[in-house]
Design goal:
Elements (H helix, E strand, L loop, with lengths): L8 H14 L12 E4 L1 H4 L15 H13 L9 E3 L26 H10 L3 E7 L15 H11 L3 E5 L6 H18 L4 E4 L1 H5 L7 H7 L2 E3 L8 H13 L1 H4 L8 E3 L12 H13 L4 E3 L8 H7 L2 H7 L8 E6 L2 E7 L5 E7 L7 E6 L9 E7 L3 E6 L4 E6 L4 E8 L22
Helix pairs in contact: 3-4, 5-6, 11-13
The structure holds 2-acetamido-2-deoxy-beta-D-glucopyranose (4 copies).
Length: 430
């Protein structure tokens, strides 16, 4: 995006909005980040239904999750897609070369499962791979993009996660991702297209995000998430380290995907779960939980269902946030929101000691007039009316995050709380 200092801020803002809105995949989907549940991180490739019927990849698992998404309030707050990952397939295609599920684990077939999920007012996602085999070694889509897209459409699939294992050459990888996008379009069915194109490409060549955005609704850039703080922080660090490249690519219809939410599993402390929820909201990330909704603890559930934080993630302006600066092992992240509001996250990256205080000054939020500040995480608290002379002190636990929302107070509602130079391109001050 050229040098930020050589163009007026408003021109850059327009340029980035134009990039975001004019060139998204034209399927009318993912105007805000996709929300749902995806089996991979928690259930992996567990195909052993004989010894572990409760946790194996089977139609029963997805029906249970669909039931719970409705009965436990997930659907009400926006989680909509129930998504199957790798390991649903039979070892071979059928006599007509069509994909078929493992009949022992999906005895009713995928169409019946889709009907069931749809009867609950939810949507069904499925998984395939651009190459000859999926990552777990099941038949891939290479050579069958149109047939597989049509099969998915016939079954009533609503989202395709398209992995990139076993892709052959870089040209075939790109052609495959493009061809599958066109094949999905040709079916006439609305299917969210979730890609891993830049992840596989980046080892050889800088991905062209303008192009990726024309073909995909979201795209994975970096490693699979694990159930650990170490994994979470490598994702945050990669994102911050590449924000000049990836932040401008995000917008309604196309999003950077930092991978699943692992909140409610085994590996993250409470503060680390708060950090994941807050930063996935700042990053305008798809919210695809991979956890066990049958046994999730109430605190994790409340965090994942926090409507105020979800509203930041789903903000209609659709601008991804960014790391503005680091100071004394604190990170200050910001995300511009609609109606001139602003989300601010303060992460304490120190992994030793006790909670530390961080002071935000008026110029941290470019507060020209009066604004109302609300703390959303770790707990909700109204911090009242502030102006440019205010100083807000927040206490942040090690590896934890405080998430704030700043809105213009009623008498100054026409003033933006952030100046235009305060969007993503100002971060070269890092
Ligand atoms: C297919 O693409 C065209 C234009 O590129 C678009 O108008 C149409 O809505 C798309 N259809 C589907 C089902 O995505
Ligand atoms: C993609 O589609 C084009 C046009 O139909 C075809 O020539 C090409 O072989 C396809 N590539 C792959 C990898 O399937
Ligand atoms: C990136 O892709 C866009 C759209 O397909 C294209 O116009 C542009 O030339 C590409 N940029 C580079 C550096 O290849
Ligand atoms: C800002 O708020 C402080 C404390 O409420 C108040 O004393 C001060 O006059 C205000 N300044 C402006 C410019 O509104």
């Amino acid at each position: 995006m050229g040098s930020p200092t050589s163009l007026p801020a408003t021109a850059l803002l327009w340029l980035s909005l134009w990039t975001a809105w004019a060139q998204a995949l034209d399927n009318g989907l993912a105007l805000t980040p996709t929300m749902g549940w995806l089996h991979w991180e928690r259930f992996l490739c567990n195909t052993n239904c004989d010894s572990d019927p409760h946790n194996c990849i089977s139609e029963q698992l997805f029906m249970q999750m669909a039931d719970l998404m409705v009965s436990e309030g997930w659907k009400n707050v926006g989680y909509q897609y129930v998504c199957i990952d790798d390991c649903w397939l039979a070892a071979t295609r059928d006599a007509q070369n069509r994909l078929q599920p493992d009949m022992k684990r999906f005895p009713s077939g995928i169409k019946k499962l889709a009907d069931y999920v749809h009867s609950k007012g939810l949507k069904l996602g499925i998984y395939q791979d651009v190459g000859k085999k999926t990552c777990a070694g099941f038949p891939g889509s290479f050579g069958f993009y149109e047939l597989d897209a049509q099969t998915f459409a016939d079954w009533g699939i609503d989202l395709l996660k398209f992995d990139g294992c076993n892709y052959g050459t870089l040209n075939l990888l790109a052609e495959g991702y493009r061809n599958m996008s066109l094949a999905l379009n040709k079916t006439g069915r609305s299917i969210v297209y979730s890609c891993e194109w830049p992840f596989y490409m980046k080892f050889f060549k800088q991905p062209n995000y303008t192009e990726i955005r024309e073909y995909c609704n979201h795209w994975r850039n970096f490693d699979d998430i694990y159930d650990s703080w170490n994994s979470l922080k490598t994702i945050l660090d990669w994102t911050a380290g590449h924000q000049d490249l990836i932040v401008p690519a995000a917008g309604p219809g196309g999003w950077n995907d930092p991978d699943m939410l692992v909140i409610g599993n085994f590996g993250l402390s409470w503060d680390q779960q708060v950090t994941q929820m807050a930063l996935w909201a700042i990053m305008a990330a798809p919210l695809l939980m991979s956890n066990d909704l049958r046994t999730i603890d109430p605190n994790s559930k409340a965090l994942l269902q926090n409507k105020e934080v979800i509203a930041i993630n789903q903000d209609p302006l659709g601008k991804q946030g960014y790391l503005e600066r680091k100071v004394e092992d604190f990170e200050l992240w910001k995300r511009p929101l609609s109606q001139g509001a602003l989300a601010v996250a303060v992460v304490n990256r120190r992994e030793i000691g006790s909670s530390r205080s961080f002071v935000l000054l008026g110029n941290d939020w470019a507060c020209k007039q009066k604004c109302v500040i609300t703390r959303l995480l770790p707990t909700h608290k109204d911090l009242g009316l502030h102006n440019c002379t205010s100083a807000i002190k927040v206490q942040v636990n090690p590896t934890g995050t405080v998430l704030l929302k700043l809105t213009a107070s009623e008498d100054t509602a026409h003033h933006k709380l952030f100046s235009e130079s305060d969007t993503w391109h100002s971060m070269d001050t890092l």
